[in-house]
From TrEMBL:
Domain annotation Methyltransferase: ranges: 157-296
Lineage, opening ranks: Bacteria, Bacillati, Actinomycetota, Actinomycetes, Jiangellales
Gene Ontology CC: one annotated term: cytoplasm
GO term, biological process aspect, one: methylation
Protein name: Methyltransferase family protein
Pfam families: Methyltransf_32
GO molecular function: methyltransferase activity
Region (Disordered): 106-125
Length: 401
């Protein structure tokens, strides 16, 4: 039954402003007499670090524009979209699906259907992105196209950077605390094409009351020149720098508060962890890459501790076991050196098998004797010295006395 259009639109307002119930609303199409400014508008609520926001995404023919509106301004933003001459509204809430269609006569046809089982809104919010696909830097680094959408061929990289930043978010306050009113210094070791370095800059730059300074380090000169040019194009040259140096010996003017290492090959991750510890970095996030060092050592051994030889007998199992053992040693060494360490999966294994992340926060606490004993027994039984150990021998000797 047709309804008066202004009244029907007004009845949508409460659902759109209900942050606990709204899943997503889409306004699209045009009315007979008028064309909206945007081809389509989507609304949903997201939880950002700065708090809950109404996300308004508008699409023209080429690209999308995203703005996140604070709760006290959401009413005005919703009224603005309701005032556009859209021909259709589709609203999903946790318990209802609402469709509104504007008829040729300019009335509203409204259909409401209850949902059985409901929709888990919390999941939808938890998955709010750290970097919107239309973020200008993503287009500049070639992850998104000019239409503001992630290119299918780059979606794994986009997800990896987004999820890495999601894992960084919970420890940002700790690093910020350490930086105080000075710029937060972030260093990405083995930055390569610097997707993460630029992504971190883009995300941190949006955090309230935070000044930043981001440095990427890589041995390749080509990475340095390419990344510097990119920083220049993005207008970030004053807050970003790129250095061509090996991780093990790089020196920076001031020690960083946060050290990243994303997929630095083989023992370059150990170089990065050792470098970060020597800088006394309050926060370290390292997602290791391939692990060949322990694999080789275990493979060369003439005997293995029994009955655990079963883990090392077959090449493929030995490879996986060496990966686990390497990261377990890295986490333990950091614990002994006064870090609280979590080992987490930062991106779904469907996207990359290299999805383990060591997230370490310096506490400076004394090592637990039980951890030292466990570590000694493990290295003795396997008769291996993890690659991180010679790099931090002095520090470990002091802490393990
Ligand atoms: C697999 S890429 C990862 C790049 C980037 N972190 C990412 O995840 O997109 C590894 C990068 O680490 C750099 N790298 C490897 N060993 C290094 C070392 N010892 N010192 C500096 N850079 C190193 C390589 O040049 C390469 O660019």
């Amino acid at each position: 039954m047709p309804q008066n259009l202004p009244t029907a639109l007004d009845s949508l307002r409460a659902s759109l402003l209900d942050a606990d119930r709204l899943v997503r609303a889409v306004a699209s199409g045009r009315r007979r007499s008028a064309t909206p400014r945007f081809r389509r508008t989507e609304l949903r609520w997201v939880d950002l670090r700065a708090g809950r926001r109404l996300q308004v995404v508008t699409y023209d023919e080429q690209q999308s524009f995203t703005r996140n509106v604070a709760a006290d301004e959401a009413g005005a933003a919703v009224d603005e979209v309701l005032a556009e001459p859209y021909g259709n509204w589709h609203i999903d809430t946790t318990d209802e699906e609402i469709q509104l269609r504007v008829t040729k006569k300019g009335d509203a046809q409204v259909h409401r259907a209850g949902r059985t089982g409901g929709v888990d809104r919390s999941h939808d919010r938890r998955k709010a992105r750290m970097l919107e696909p239309d973020d200008p830097f993503l287009a500049e680094v070639g992850i998104s196209g000019p239409d503001g959408r992630v290119k299918p061929s780059r979606s794994a990289k986009y997800r990896q950077v987004d999820e890495f930043l999601r894992a960084f978010a919970p420890v940002l306050d700790r690093a910020h605390e350490e930086a105080g009113s000075a710029p937060l210094r972030v260093t990405d070791l083995g930055c390569g094409n610097a997707y993460l370095t630029f992504g971190a800059h883009a995300w941190l730059d949006r955090q309230p009351d935070l000044k930043i300074n981001v440095t990427g380090v890589d041995v390749k000169e080509q990475s340095r020149t390419r990344n510097e040019e990119l920083a220049e194009r993005l207008g970030w040259s004053s807050t970003m720098a790129f250095v061509r140096e090996p991780i093990a010996s790089v020196e920076l003017d001031q020690r960083p508060h946060v050290v990243f290492a994303l997929h630095a090959c083989d023992t370059a991750t150990d170089d990065a962890l050792a470098r970060a510890v020597r800088w006394d970095a309050p926060v370290i996030l390292a997602a290791p890459c391939c692990h060949h060092d322990l694999q080789r050592r275990i493979g060369r051994a003439t005997s293995w501790p029994q009955p655990y030889g079963l883990l090392a007998r077959h090449g493929i199992l030995r490879e996986r076991f060496a990966d686990v053992l390497t990261d377990a040693f890295r986490a333990t060494v950091l614990r002994i050196l006064g870090y609280r360490v979590e080992v987490i999966e930062f991106v779904d294994s469907a996207h990359t098998p290299r999805n383990t992340l060591l997230r370490a926060v310096r506490t400076g606490g004394a090592p637990d004797p039980a951890t030292i004993a466990e570590y000694r027994r493990m290295t003795d039984e396997w008769n291996v010295e993890p690659a991180l150990v010679p790099r931090l021998r002095q520090e470990l000797d002091t802490r393990m006395k």
